[in-house]
Amino acid sequence: MFNPSRNEVREFFFAIWSKAQAGSVLTPLEAMALSVVQAHPEYHEVLSNPERYREREWTPEGGETNPFLHLSVHLAIEEQLSIDQPPGIRGIVQSLESKLGNAMDARHAVMDCLVEQIWQAQRNAVPFNNEAYLDCLRRRSSG
């Protein structure tokens, strides 16, 4: 998925959840996304009710996490790990998993670094800085 709209992202997650519930065959990307969804049972209600949640707005001011954004960032991380891009991320994340004791805590630490680097790139109107991203991950895995 390259630069999907908000609605396309939501429909993607609604569709894979529906397909999984029906036992349908999933593409490799859908299977990867499903593993992310399955690790987040707190979002199953949302994904089971597209009519109710398709247009819902989640606001940080309300202390809410947008489930589609959260799942999308997880999926981006899984894609990065599957191809080791940026180079070296897989090993750093494995170290982080060892340090934190589980994959989910490690993924959430990765998420913090990834979101920070995206924010910096957007704020400063510069390209995403892979080295700063990896440095953030290294600090978390060693500190």
From TrEMBL:
<dbReference type="Pfam" id="PF08897">
    <property type="entry name" value="DUF1841"/>
</dbReference>
<dbReference type="InterPro" id="IPR014993">
    <property type="entry name" value="DUF1841"/>
</dbReference>
<protein>
    <recommendedName>
        <fullName>DUF1841 family protein</fullName>
    </recommendedName>
</protein>
